[in-house]
Specification:
Elements: H1 33-42, E1 44-48, E2 53-55, E3 63-69, E4 72-77, E5 83-89, E6 94-95, H2 97-102, E7 109-112, E8 116-122, H3 123-132, H4 134-160, H5 163-178, H6 192-199, H7 203-215, E9 219-222, E10 225-228, H8 231-235
Helix pairs in contact: 5-6, 6-7
């Protein structure tokens, strides 16, 4: 488990928050230059290996993580022991805001899907800015409201759309959000189990549907890598 302590820092960089372009994609953009300088002096930057757990469900985080590079998955363990992937978190996103504001243990686990670089900002610094900077507080609330909207959409999709349609939409989302390599392969590589956990089905079902997509020429594969061959056909799936 990735411990949030200065002693366990793998690698600390000299990057400054006030000069970091990544903050423009999250709530930190509302902080003043002086506030960013103060936060920069307190944060620690770390590299996380693919497959490493950033924090576990039920863990007290005591701060927020700003994703500087890489992708991670947020998941929750169900009563039957199955992991449900709730969200994919990308460069520029913050992790741990909800737990920090609610003053409660994390409701989800975060695991790196590829090599990542994150900055950890202690709870005391974020709480200080929430109390002193109303613009920052508003940005945090906007992000939390957006997360709730996304959660609503996930619930509706689970109830009203077929597994086949949800899997097609997941492939489109990954393409739109993360893009493709020069060879056309999706940049984010998920295991077949991960795809199943995103759409809420058995791994065997996800494998069967992906095989069907491949047979119909909608996608092609190379190992775990997937290439979308017919985007319009994928969009028409019901």
């Amino acid at each position: 488990m990735f411990q949030v302590t200065l002693q366990n820092t793998i690698n600390e960089t000299m990057s400054k928050c006030e000069q970091c372009i990544v903050r423009q994609f999250n709530s930190l953009k509302a902080l003043t230059k002086d506030e960013l300088v103060r936060v920069s002096a307190c944060k620690t930057s770390r590299f996380i290996k693919k497959g490493e757990v950033i924090f576990d469900e039920g863990e007290t985080i005591n701060g927020v993580f700003c994703v500087k590079d890489g992708v991670c998955k947020l998941s929750k363990l169900s009563a039957n022991g199955k992991d449900q992937i709730v969200k994919l978190v990308i460069k520029g996103n913050l992790l741990g805001q909800r737990s920090l504001i609610g003053d409660e243990a994390s409701n989800l686990s975060a695991t790196a899907l590829n090599d990542m670089e994150v900055c950890f900002i202690p709870k005391s610094e974020i709480i200080w800015d929430l109390k002193k900077n109303s613009n920052f507080s508003m940005e945090v609330m906007k992000n939390l409201a957006h997360d709730l909207k996304e959660a609503d959409n996930v619930i509706v999709n689970m109830a009203q759309k077929s597994v086949k349609q949800r899997l097609a939409e997941t492939l489109i989302y990954i393409m739109d959000t993360f893009g493709a390599t020069e060879e056309g392969m999706l940049k984010v590589i998920l295991s077949r189990e991960d795809y199943a956990n995103v759409v809420g089905t058995a791994t065997e079902s996800a494998i069967r549907i992906l095989s069907q997509f491949k047979k119909e020429g909608i996608i092609s594969t190379s190992g775990k890598q997937i290439k979308i061959e017919d985007l319009e056909a994928l969009k028409r799936i019901e």
